Amino acid sequence: QGLRVEEIKEIVKVLEEAKEVYWDSANNSLLYFFEDKKDSSKVNKIIIRPDYNLKKFGKTNAIITLGKVDKDRKGLKHLKKIR
């Protein structure tokens, strides 16, 4: 499920304030979770891959995906909490 426009506008603030961040060593990715203000059973998820290699630009920190997951199904077992 995709993010609403107002949630996409929050991305910069979420990344700056980062209250819930995990490291996924299997995929070399950072996962940021933030509250879904309209559906308390869901959380919003941002996946960022540091040092992602783009052919034309070289290495960068790339947003891989944005979406929603059920609050109780975040799949945190294999993740290391950073914040």
Automatic annotation (TrEMBL):
Q: Which residues form the HTH merR-type domain?
A: 1-14
GO BP of this protein: regulation of DNA-templated transcription
Can you name one GO molecular function term for this protein? DNA binding
Q: Which InterPro entries match?
A: MerR-type_HTH_dom (IPR000551)
Extract the PROSITE patterns matched here. HTH_MERR_2
Protein name (record): HTH merR-type domain-containing protein
Species annotation: Helicobacter valdiviensis
Give the taxonomic lineage as stored in the record.
Bacteria, Pseudomonadati, Campylobacterota, Epsilonproteobacteria, Campylobacterales
